[in-house]
Specification:
alpha/beta; homodimer; 4-stranded parallel β-sheet; Aldehyde Dehydrogenase, Chain A, domain 2; about 425 residues; globular
């Protein structure tokens, strides 16, 4: 750092530059943005050796600091991961451009023609952990949706992220867009995050945190600008008395065990007491046989001695691991009451053959995503057909559920008249 | 107040009751909500004498406190104003119910059927000044959109608002809905506002402030929950060189002078230098002849000696009065630069016969509402065809522009499957 230039000054300059870039980018045609995305992907492919060398610097530093296995795994890049990163950018290029879409248009009796038109939000700050791949995803999604991005990745991935940002900025050059469309916080000092959360003097419109609960909780607590995020995904599967046992086994197993570390993984299974005789033992056995620890109430433990006792804490725990909580409930009403009390308004599923019960669950459970006869692991922008996503939001305003390019836009009203005045 | 019960305890109880009511109301059919709205209107009509008597108590207290004319005018109710209040509720009943509307629906290649369905936001806190009519408007709009309301009006209108809330709650009774759907903060002490801004222990989803700049600024500053609001409306009319002079005169006059106290009133007029010879004098004369004070740059003062000198401060002042700032600009580019520098992203208009220039203005000016050849005073939910509005929002997320019943909803994803699991 140059003597005399504070992080505050540096960051304010970054914010101003992003604001200016956002105004230019808002007017860029789809072809120009897509050209940039394709050029970024090509540049990442051509820069494999360079990016991997920068990644080794980060890995050496991390090992010297004795950071542990899963952390190192997320930090590690290889040729396959870089190829996936490039493909991700190409897929974003292939998505329809949301900017300029007319969401609604109508004419008033006085002849005024009103259109509601999608426009970018402006400047988006993304705060994430030491996962270099987020750099390309977040930069690409912001560009496609017409937003300038200020990226602040974990300090342990600083060199890897910087190498990737160089490729992204080269792609912007090639397409004739300013490099300031995608900027990276220029040093790893922690106070830069605080400055971003304050909004950099009104230049940041939105913060998206990507990472674990402690990162998201800090952002939600301290941010003075809007935040799209979810704190945790305590997802439920309710197996109704009218469920097909085989379907319930398959869906519960997938919801819990396909990948245990993602936010859409089920954490609590609720079984309708009225069909517990039929459903409880097979579902418990399927899970335990797949290597899952089951923590249950007395009825579950009576059904299978391998079930461990569940405590009150289990109902509000996001394990993100091969552990599940399970209990009997008296029908859909008690299931919905349990979800209202312990859920996180993220994703919840019902398994039932009864259409009326399914309709009640879908209407009454107040979560971003509610599913009937399908796995909670479908809580994903790709699975929804949104293309890539920047995350899942459980807030109720603006974005809810998977946040793709469309959710990264807002709108304005364009009104066309012929000299109308208001009486 | 009962000894031993703190305002905090009282308010927390209110919040919990609202949350429970919101869950019930979210499932209420349109007919039941409309029945309540019609019953409320009828009850207000039948309670005219009672409401006016409570209003006289407020007015006597206000006069004893030597409050001034415009304040007393806003506080005063009469038979015509009560009738307008009742009609407002009937008009809200006639609007389509936004809740349950399917905003989008699609089927994925794996057969999952995904719907994006409108649902209420939950619990909305409305903080307003001593204008009793807001009580019925806000309560009615929240009810129609399926949201429980916590109303906190100005302390000087406490008795009037309480009498109106009694009518609203009687309407809820008649329709079989809980009275806690519309609650009023039970005393006029100031700390209740602070508790609402903190969100009442997570029970409030959204705050809508209605009132002057100091009220809105305090809410925006202190709220820990999302806020729909606008701080000020510094609205511009840009008269392009390709404007029809007669249209420009009419629209500028209406934009400034139809009502000077509303947020959509124009505050600054920008005149294209290239046609100043033709447009400047007539526009100045029209405004001054209508009783408007014009503050202008040197060119304006040279055109008409009655123009007073404008200072830097004028460009960022919301007069809300019969005063306007005016200057020459070099075409649409300088006009848009001026608006970006001094505007409030509320409502801005261009007068021009040139379609390309109009398109640039509509696309590039970053305001909630941009108009071509029409008055800024059309910035209004009723004029947009939304029916009643709870206000205008200049934030970019979720609600932007007039906030009607549709903008008081959010959505959820309902996913219907046949046992799909994620590969």
């Amino acid at each position: 750092m140059n003597a005399g230039i504070s992080n505050r000054d540096l960051m304010m300059t970054l914010g101003q530059a992003a604001r200016t870039a956002a105004r230019m980018l808002a007017l860029a045609p789809a072809e120009q943005k897509n050209q940039a995305l394709m050029a970024m992907a090509a540049k990442i492919r051509r820069s494999t050796a360079d990016i991997l060398s920068e990644n080794r610097r980060d890995l050496e530093n991390a090992r010297a600091r004795e950071l542990k296995g899963s952390f190192l795994d997320r930090l590690t890049l290889d040729e396959a991961r870089l190829d996936a990163m490039a493909r991700g950018l190409e897929e974003i290029a292939a998505l329809p451009d949301p900017v300029g879409q007319v969401m609604a248009a109508w004419t008033r009796p006085n002849g005024l023609a009103i259109s509601r038109v999608r426009v970018p939000i402006g400047v988006i700050g993304i705060i994430y952990e030491s996962r270099p791949n987020v750099t390309a995803d977040a930069g690409g999604l912001c560009l496609k949706s017409g937003n300038a991005a200020i990226l602040r990745g974990g300090s342990d991935s600083f060199h890897s992220s910087a190498a990737i940002v160089s490729c992204l900025q080269r792609g912007l050059d090639i397409a004739g867009l300013p490099r300031t469309v995608i900027q990276m916080v220029p040093n790893a000092e922690r106070d830069c995050v605080g400055l971003m959360l304050e909004g950099l003097g009104g230049t940041i419109d939105l913060i998206v945190p990507r990472g674990g609960k402690s990162l998201v909780a800090r952002v939600q607590q301290d941010a003075r600008v809007p935040v799209f995020s979810h704190l945790e995904g305590i997802c439920h599967v309710y197996v109704d008395k009218a469920a097909d046992t085989e379907m319930a086994q398959r869906v519960v197993l997938n919801a819990k065990m396909r990948r245990t570390g993602i936010c859409g993984a089920a954490e609590t299974i609720l079984i309708d007491r009225a069909a517990a005789d039929r459903n409880l033992k097979p579902i418990i056995a399927t899970l335990i046989d797949a290597g899952c620890e089951v923590r249950g109430d007395e009825a579950c433990r009576a059904a299978d001695p391998r079930v461990k006792p569940a405590t009150e804490e289990d109902w509000s725990t996001e394990y993100l691991d091969a552990i599940v909580a399970m209990k009997l409930v008296d029908g859909v009403d008690e299931a919905m009451a349990h979800i209202a009390a312990y859920g996180s308004q993220h994703t919840d599923a019902i398994i039932t053959g009864d259409a009326a019960t399914a309709a009640r669950f879908l209407n009454e459970v107040d979560s971003a995503i509610v599913l009937h006869n399908a796995s909670t692991q479908f809580a994903d922008g790709g699975e929804f057909g949104f293309g890539a996503e920047i995350g899942i939001a459980t807030g109720k305003l603006h974005a809810r559920g998977p946040v793709g390019v469309e959710q990264l836009t807002t709108f304005k009203y364009q009104v066309r008249g012929a000299g109308q005045t208001r009486p």
